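Everyone, describe these structure tokens:
***
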Amino acid sequence: MKRIQPLVLLLLLAAGCSVNPYKKTNKVYKTQAKDYARTISENPLPVGADSVPGPPYWVGTINFNLRKPNFVIIHHTAQNSCPQTLQTFTIQKTQVSAHYVICRDGTVHHMLNDYLRAWQAGASRWGNITDINSISIGIELDNNGMEPFPDAQINSLLHLLTKLKTTYNIPAANFIGHGDIAPARKNDPSCLFPWKELADKGFGLWYSDTTNVKVPEGFSSLTALRIVGYDVRDSSAAIMAFKRHFEQDTIRHWDSVDQKLLYNLYRQYE
């Protein structure tokens, strides 16, 4: 028997180590995607009921394309590792998912085609939009919610956001957090997330210098929060979400400083 060369042996060992543990769930993904593709390609059934006449033949328009995402929702996983999150998103009973998962070391897992609807936003609202899953891309950052976000992870996130913004022409204001759209239920990403760094690069809005800002008499904080997009039915939760996003502070009570910041931002949404 011929001796196996050391390099060949190393390659064989590496190949053995790279076996995908998600082979079975990837097969389920492909099957479901094919089922949806088959549904989309079917001719719409002719409409005809009671006294409403059906058409003599089907006519399909040639003017259409795929629906495109218009928001990006950023989350932290509230779990302890990337493998734990990947497993969570590949178990049917959890009923949760995201388009992307970014690990602490910057590794990006693209788990769902951008044109498909992930189950990431849950019961949420932004402005008058109540079905955010249908128009958004969900990005989960591997973070337990109590730790800083590593540079490698944020760097990968910025690269990904640049691609998404360019590909889908997503407005800067439409990069928001899970806690923004579900203030009474969620707090992710946490107060440690670098929203200003993202805003400086065009992902999300930010306030400018408020030194000389004069808040007009009669200015309503709740009205301004609603115009920005927050669900103010739970006013305390909406205020907390705003402070978590723009001030990284959920302890200090609402005061004139908050009023100035909110008024400054509100003017960008008018």
User: Anything to note?
Assistant: Residues 8-13 have pLDDT under 50 and may be disordered. The first strand starts at residue 71 and ends at 76. Residues 207-270 form one domain.
